[in-house]
Hints:
By secondary structure, the protein is an alpha/beta fold. It is built from 6 helices and 8 strands. The strands form 2 sheets. A 6-stranded mixed beta sheet has the order 1-7-8-6-4-5, sandwiched between helices. The longest helix is centred in the N-terminal third of the chain and has 29 residues, at 27-55.
Amino acid sequence: MAEATPPPVVPPTAVPPRRDEREPARTPLFAAFVFVFLLSIVLGVLAVVSVLQDTSGTDLAGGATPSSSLGFTGTPSPTPRPTFDPSPGPRVDGGFRFLELVGGGPVRWNPCDTITYAVNAAGATTSVRADLREAIRRVTRATGIEFRSVGATRETFIRAYERMRYDGVIRKAALILIWVDHDDYEAIRQRLNDPRPSIAFAKTMAGLYADRDQYFGGIIVMDADATAGRGFGYRYAHGSVLLHELGHIMGLDHVKDPDQLMYSGRHPNFGLRDYGSGDLEGLRRLGEEAGCLQ
């Protein structure tokens, strides 16, 4: 038990102050300190919440723009790693969505020009060209836009992006398709600071100022080790994933209808092997029927 502290001894010459002459109360200063302290806590919590929201990429292109040393101005549109959720998902008629809108219309390629493309398949273990030719044939059938191969390239994703975005140079190919092994693919994702697990992604390049309503370049990067075999027999087969990424290149965003190949979510239609009706309608509106661009 603590001993009681005796009251202080007041010298005889000291006159106790009157009640109305005591030192000013410090209650307002203390209250202000408490207010500032609580405000700093609230702001800190809000900052953490904001960071968590910015880095959540549940749904591919609908997520936040990843920051990176490359200075990305748009979000790559990755194909997620396959998930096998046995519970039935909600049925939503997603139709189609466009990646970007300018002046009320979708950003698109000039359908009166041919899209040239080059392939870097150094990371692929087997030939990818048969699936690529068939995927491009289906895109042309849906849009009316022609593609033309200009051969092979050794260009990496980083170099192709820097050339297109910062230099505005197309050279021979407007579209670069790159296959890399899994380790290299993961290294690219880390370089982009993109936490979303995926097996492929596409990046489109739109013009600036008066040309911002049209694409002039694009890049597709494929994890060569992640697709479920060659062909189009399954949603995550090599050819089907190519179709999905080419849909992004043409200007389509993800949708919530699992019967569309541009679907992104936890309940995909695994048997889907070609564009759905919504995909085809979106591609049609991005194609030659929309008219030439200046």
